Amino acid sequence: MIKAKDIMTREIVTVTPDTKVNEIAKLMLEKHFNGFPVVDANGDLVGLICQSDLIAEQKKLPIPSVFAILDSFIPIHPLGKTEKEMQKIAAIRASDAMTSNPVTVGPEAGIDELAEIMVNRSFHTIPVVEGGKLVGIIGKEDVLRTLVPSDKKD
Question: Does the pTM exceed 0.90?
Fold first, then answer.
């Protein structure tokens, strides 16, 4: 069975929490990557920033749905969700737009687990972590390549 370590990109392009979103967008376009791991000064994974996080800046500010009862307004949607969307719309740095504590896999994760995460959770970029350290990254293209026969001769 194909494992994460077989298809992951080992030469990882990362950004820091202070990297500006316009720099990240430019890097995504230059490298043709969907997302980047966000690492702190120690190289520890602190988040993941994807194209969809940056595209959120172009959204209109959502007006929270409420209903009135006994002269009180009660939100229908959790206020925390609205607050997070507002933060992404106003994002200036990676730390403002990134997903903190992203879902990760280990190098031994099977292709079936990767596919399940990508499909069921709509994730397109998955960091690979071993012993608490970032060792690789897997994108949609990495998984798609497994469907194409290799021209390599052993």
Answer: no
